[in-house]
Every structure is written in structure tokens, then in C-alpha cells.
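Here is one chain, start to finish.
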Amino acid sequence: MKFVVALLLMCLGTVSLSQFSLEPIEGLKDSKSQINVVMISADWCNICRVNETKIEQKKYLGSFNSDQVRFFKLREKHADPIVFNGKSYSYQQTGLNQGVHELISHFLGGKQPTYPTFLFMDFQNKVVESWPGFISEPEMESLLNGILNQIEEPDSDNSN
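Its structure:
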């Protein structure tokens, strides 16, 4: 009986964790969250996997919900074209088994990517902050709170 209860609790825990899994980048255009976080990653990047695991285990989220924050993943070798803000972006091969997706180049302004890189976007998908490299739980929470405060401040100033 204890085994069945433990198994049920594990399954329920997995279901609740799925709310904050990294979603495919294609869903970004339909997001209604206040902050959209895009994690730019590479398959070979161990730090990317650590950050991804922490996101999926809700370790970065504290008291945030999906109306406030959603996470998306863009792999360096994403094979399919992506339409973003009305323009189509594709994977560009630069050598034998090398290349980068044009959307990554667009987001980074043509700079060489660092993996992972986190892009924090407002509800209009404009980049308001970026973070290259590993990000700790306190750093992520601080950035998210700071961006949410910036988003909410203009409304509170207008109501006075």
C-alpha cells in the first residue's frame, strides 16, 4: 500500500512540475505571460542541462505562476524555420556539423552566442534583459522580480 501511495505522489509531483517545463520556441508568439524567458542552448552544453533541470523542477520560480512567467527553449541547431514578429528565421549551417539558428543571431544582434543565454522578454516579446552563462536560483528570482516591478510601476504611477 505504501508503494502505491508513493507512486501516486511521484506522479502527481511530475504533473505539477510540467507547468514550468521549457516549452518549444514556437509557442512564444502565442504567450500572454508578463515575462517570457527564452533559454538559448546547445545539445553539447552541460550547463544548459543543469539550468534546464532546475527550471523543470521549479527551483527558479518561487512564487511565480504561468501568467507571470513562461519558459521557452531555443536550441542552436533547431532545424525548423521559426516565424517571429512576422519574419521567418532558419537554421544556417556554417560548416561541417556546425551552425546556428538565425533567430539566435537576431536575438543577440549578430554577436557570438554564449551557452546558455537567457533572454527576458516583456509581453510584447521585446528583450528587456539578457543573461549569458549559468544563472543561479537567487539571480533568476531577482531578475524576474525586478522585471515584474518595472512592468507594474508605470501602471501604478498613472493611477495616482
